[in-house]
Design goal:
The chain is α+β, with helices and mostly antiparallel strands. It contains 15 helices and 36 strands. The strands form 12 sheets. Strands 2, 4, 5, 6, 9, 13 and 15 form a 7-stranded antiparallel sheet that branches. Strands 3, 7, 10, 11, 12 and 14 form a 6-stranded antiparallel sheet that branches. About 50% of the residues are buried. Bound molecules: calcium ion.
């Protein structure tokens, strides 16, 4: 567990577009386009001394929701130049896997000024700040000289939005793109308010021809409307621009969407209301096509069952609409690297696809076609003693060491997450026809090829090792020691029909009482609680039989139990449904109490787990030390089988009261931190599917039943029950 978090916390180096991976998506290098949240902009800061002033909210720049170039908002720079000085800093927001960028030689932004002369416009510097990965301490800070914005004005029409383009060479040489912009006072005294929007390094070579949007459709739900269109295949299109009307006469711009989505979610917050929509295309040079014909949709009250369907379908869509196109497998996060698949998340996605058929989101034929794509890709891809790597290039099946050079081989935990999905699919696709038979046969041959026993590195029948690489071998050297999210790895290794580990490894490795294992648990939990695997303390009035600290992040009770029914897993310490339910209840009671007084956290917005966050990917736990106010919807929603009432309350609260920023193309966005006024821009492959699957397990037990039907699994669980201890 610990290792996974550390690896995921490694900051990725930003890279210019290179020939080597030219096929990866190159993003616009955007400092600001819109803020998901009102109030202030998280990635900004403001400083001034007396004799000067910059309007701020909690020392950050205000977001203005009324005046914007691109809807729905802009940044407001409202200042007084006097005897003192002021600065307003905007940091580049690093988004996981968004690490290839279009070439640029100029900085561009759009501004609108209301008062004061243009010579009052600020000075601008660019900077490059490098921080130490773990401590976030600044290790180097380069800054350019100051450039006068007023020198780059080409239009003196102060009534409208004006584009300012400044060549990067005006700032002096930087070997890589800057990650900080600093506005500051000019020498001229006075007051001025400037709205700033679309701050970016302007992509080069953006000639093209604009075409109008095609095949538009709309669909209303309880408090939002989804707009869909034909996927855009034109690199000259920068945005799809959305207009809404309530009377089909007056249309106002409400938002923009990137062309790598062909769906926009308009959360209006109102049931029983009719809306009309038109959309247009905006080009790389910000020219715009005419708007489409209008499309009508009426929102309506939804029952609990309809809400569950809606949430399940939206999260499922991540693995359907959002899949990597060649392999059919799941991406690590969206938006992110478009070719890089994550194998564990892909296993989760397979289970979500099964739910998709049963709930009628797709047909069985569509799912069969996708499963044939997936299984034939998996037959061909890189494997390491039968195990797959954590990340692969979906276009060719080659390992992609996203977490660094050492991680270029088999990942047994991700492999077990993948096979949890494949084994559920082997039961689901049970028809006699040749296609479904082929799916089953391929899954069986992949399953039989995994050398689980190879990953018992010491051959002492104790610990499984997480990684093995053909050239680095066991260099990462991470032993799997429970209790955490990797129980499925031991159980599948025990269940293997061809390369099983000795069942004795369950107590000798996974639940080991050796000093090495005790120390491992203490190191991650920073407490003695649970360091001998069993715990038996009470937290918030609830007994915890097994688990480190007070149970840890909620993904521990999700990832291993999407297929594996915890009702059927009992060892000498506990039954794991009971244990998992207690962990969910401890988490819920902690969030209800909200001891850190974090904004938004409550009995109906709860579920601390691993997710994206204001300071990157992190595992959040219900302890004062590890709770930073970040809330991930998957926490409460994937806990549905354990805490149906509390999970339903969270679903309704998150959708109805927080949907405006939290609800999107693939359901709930990964995470939000209302305390910091930070909102995730991404969805994550590990977090969406557990929502779909665990709601289904709560409703019908479908995925649990399928996975448990595998005879190897029931045999392994019988072995576990019969183990001498
Ligand atoms: Ca904007």
């Amino acid at each position: 567990m610990k290792h996974k978090i550390i690896l995921k916390a490694i900051a990725l180096i930003l890279t210019f577009s290179s020939g080597m991976q030219a096929q990866e998506r190159e993003y616009d290098y955007m400092f600001f386009e819109n803020s998901a949240l009102s109030g202030n902009y998280f990635f900004s800061s403001v400083k001034y001394n007396e004799g000067a002033y910059v309007k701020n909210i909690a020392n950050k720049l205000p977001v203005n929701d009324k005046t914007f170039f691109t809807p729905p908002n802009s940044l407001e720079l409202d200042y007084t130049n006097g005897s003192g000085t002021w600065t307003s800093t905007i940091d580049f927001e690093r988004i996981r896997g968004n690490d290839y960028f279009k070439k640029s030689n100029s900085l561009s932004f759009w501004m609108m000024t209301e008062n004061g002369k243009d010579e009052l416009l600020p000075m601008l510097q660019i900077g490059l700040v490098e921080k130490e990965r773990k401590t976030k301490k600044i290790v180097s800070h380069k800054q350019s000289g100051k450039v006068e914005i007023s020198k780059y004005i080409t239009s003196t029409d102060i009534k409208g939005w004006r584009q300012i383009i400044i060549p990067l060479k005006a700032f002096g040489a930087f070997e890589v793109y800057p990650n900080q912009l600093v506005f500051s006072n000019s020498a001229i005294k006075g007051e001025k308010r400037v709205f700033i929007d679309q701050i970016e390094l302007l992509p080069e070579d953006v000639d093209g021809k604009l075409d109008a949007p095609q095949n538009i459709s709309v669909k209303a739900y309880e408090r939002h409307v989804d707009l869909m269109w034909k996927p855009v295949d034109n690199a000259f299109v920068k945005y799809i621009k959305i207009y809404r009307s309530e009377d089909n006469k007056t249309f106002v711009p409400i938002g923009i969407q990137r062309p790598y989505f062909h769906r926009y979610t308009d959360f209006t917050g109102q049931p029983d209301k009719t809306y009309y929509y038109k959309i247009s295309h905006v080009a790389m040079d910000y020219s715009e096509t005419s708007v489409s014909a209008s499309h009508k949709a009426t929102s309506y009250h939804m029952s609990d069952e309809q809400l569950l369907d809606m949430v399940q379908e939206a999260s499922f869509r991540y693995y359907w609409e959002g899949a990597e196109t060649n392999s059919g497998l799941a991406l690590e996060n969206i938006p992110g690297r478009k070719n890089m698949i994550a194998t564990g998340a892909s296993g989760f996605g397979i289970m979500a696809i099964i739910v998709g058929v049963e709930r009628g989101f797709i047909s069985r034929e569509q799912a069969v076609e996708r499963m044939l794509t997936i299984t034939s890709f998996l037959e061909q891809c890189d494997k390491f003693h039968g195990a797959v790597s954590h990340f692969m290039d979906g276009t060719n099946g080659k390992v992609e060491p996203f977490f660094g050079d050492k991680d270029n081989g088999g990942d047994l935990v991700e492999t077990s997450f993948l096979f949890q999905g494949l084994l559920a699919a082997r039961q689901y696709f049970d028809k006699k026809d040749s296609e479904e038979r082929q799916i089953r046969e391929t899954i069986s041959s992949l399953w039989e090829a995994v050398e689980w026993d190879w990953y018992d590195r010491e051959k002492e029948n104790k610990y499984l090792t997480w990684h093995w690489s053909p050239d680095k071998e066991w260099l990462i050297n991470h032993k799997l020691i429970g209790w955490n999210e990797t129980m499925i790895t031991y159980l599948l290794a025990m269940a293997s029909p061809t390369h099983p580990i000795s069942s004795s490894m369950y107590y000798n490795g996974w639940a080991s009482q050796e000093e090495l294992a005790v120390k491992y648990r203490k190191d991650w939990g920073k407490t003695d609680d649970g360091s001998f695997y069993s715990n038996d303390n009470y937290y918030h009035g609830i007994k915890l039989p097994v688990g480190v600290s007070n149970g840890g992040p909620l993904f521990f009770i999700h990832y291993s139990y999407l297929g594996l029914d915890p009702n059927g897993v009992t060892d000498k310490y506990t039954n794991y449904f009971e244990n998992n339910r207690n962990i969910a209840l401890i988490n819920w009671r902690y969030c209800s109490e909200n001891p850190m007084n974090h904004k938004g956290m409550s009995h109906s917005f709860w579920g601390l787990t691993a997710s994206d966050g204001p300071w990157g990917y992190n595992a959040i736990e219900p302890t004062r030390e590890r709770d930073n106010g970040t809330l991930a919807p998957t926490g409460a929603l994937a806990s549905f089988p354990y805490t149906p009432e509390q999970s339903m309350a969270a679903l309704k609260n998150m959708y109805r009261n927080h949907g405006q920023y939290l609800w999107g193309e693939y359901g709930f966005k990964d995470a939000v931190n209302l305390q910091e006024n930070w909102m995730a821009k991404i969805y994550m492959g590990l977090n969406q599917a557990p929502v779909t699957i665990m709601i289904e397990n709560y409703r019908t037990g479908l995925i649990w039943k399928l996975f448990m039907q595998n005879k190897e699994i029931s045999e392994a669980l019988t072995k576990l029950k019969d183990l001498k201890h």
